[in-house]
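--- STAGE predict ---
source: upstream dedup step, 1 unique chain passed
mode: sequence only
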Amino acid sequence: MAELMETVALPHVDAASLPPMIDPARTALVVVDIQVDFAAPEGLLGRVGVDLSEAEAAIDRCERLVAAARFAGATVALMRVVTRADTDSRALRTLMARRGRPGGEAICRADEAGADYYRIFPEPGDIEVQKRLYDSFHGTDFDAQLQARGIDTLVVCGLSTDCCVDQTARAAFHHDYDVFIVSDACAAYEPGLHESALNALEKNCVLLTTTPAVEAAWTR
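--- STAGE serialize ---
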């Protein structure tokens, strides 16, 4: 399986300093869009020939993070895109049409297998959020669910680094959460997008960490 692109040149939180920053009592692990259409060979991206090897490598690490979060008692929050023809974004339809791809927004349809979870599935007590587009906060009750649990810190992983991970992390910061992105547990589908997205996010609104650092903090 392919390794994720190198991110060691980007600033990361010192692993020894991480544990008090991600106290499980007030932290949620946010797993973004690990779904059939985005990651499975039989999903939409797989069927059109997108290389999913880096996505699979990231999901391997997401699975480890979920296990560590459950062990430590941190909240696990699973984000999922679920779309319907009658609620598709007008702006997205227009964007796709202007790019010569009318209908290109039809992904993760509510009545199709593409919207289903892939490899990582919810358990009782988890937060589940269905969203129409990229931002996990927009048009959802995600913020209210986090506030009800006294959560002020989010550790984010999933797909894709440059799109839904990026949008969710920025929105979380704007909602006044402390945000960490697990750099080796995210992936993008084109060369350069993963590292460039992490670089921009780290400069503006998040701290970067790694799967081993989070595991060490949550499984001591």
